[in-house]
Design goal:
Helices cover 68% and strands 0% of the residues. It has 179 residues and is an all-alpha fold. It has a domain of 99 residues. Helix 3 runs antiparallel to helix 4. The radius of gyration is 49 Å and the shape is rod-shaped. The protein starts with a helix and ends in a 31-residue tail after the last helix.
Length: 179
């Protein structure tokens, strides 16, 4: 009997060493197998919220590119506006200085007339002369400013586009747990 055990151990160890090749030879296959084809790629279901977000982001990117171009032209227009405002204020300064000098002169005249006046009629005449001098100075200043032209218009600042909100991930509904 020991030879039978030895023979069984030898067959078992040989089949383990040779592996499945011996076992495959031992079994005959009567099945007809079909040719192996390439695996079929299954497409993931698309999330409409995510697709809408991607489309909104593409639109946002083009809007940002346009915004950057508008911002550069705005900066150029603002530089030109600053130059125009400086020239306008430089031209307006002598007009305002002349107005201030006229009003100061009228005040000095009023002060001298009030010191010299002894009656109420003289004081009233001095105040009326002051009002007339200031009215003449105002009308002169308004005419000079109108002749100067309108104030240079400030360019409109471009508005930055809003970034689209990310889609919200769906949360699973809570399930009841038995107690």
């Amino acid at each position: 009997m020991s030879t039978k055990k030895t023979l069984a151990a030898l067959v078992l160890s040989t089949s383990l060493v040779l592996g499945s090749s011996v076992a495959a030879i031992a079994t005959e296959s009567t099945e007809v197998t079909a040719p192996v084809s390439a695996p079929v790629a299954t497409s993931k279901p698309t999330n409409p919220a995510r697709e809408a977000y991607r489309a909104a982001m593409a639109e946002f990117r083009t809007a940002m590119t346009q915004f950057k171009a508008e911002r550069i032209s705005f900066q150029t227009a603002m530089q030109a506006h600053r130059t125009a405002m400086t020239a306008y204020n430089t031209a307006r300064k002598p007009i305002n200085d002349a107005f201030k000098a006229s009003v100061d002169s009228a005040r000095a005249t009023l002060k001298a007339a009030l010191e010299a006046a002894t009656t109420n009629e003289q004081k009233t005449a001095a105040y009326n002369a002051m009002k007339a001098a200031v009215s003449a100075a105002i009308s002169t200043r308004e005419a000079a400013i109108t002749a100067l032209g309108p104030v240079p218009a400030r360019p409109a600042k471009p508005t930055k586009p809003e970034r689209p909100a990310k889609p919200v991930k769906p949360t699973p509904a809570p399930t009841a747990t038995p107690n």
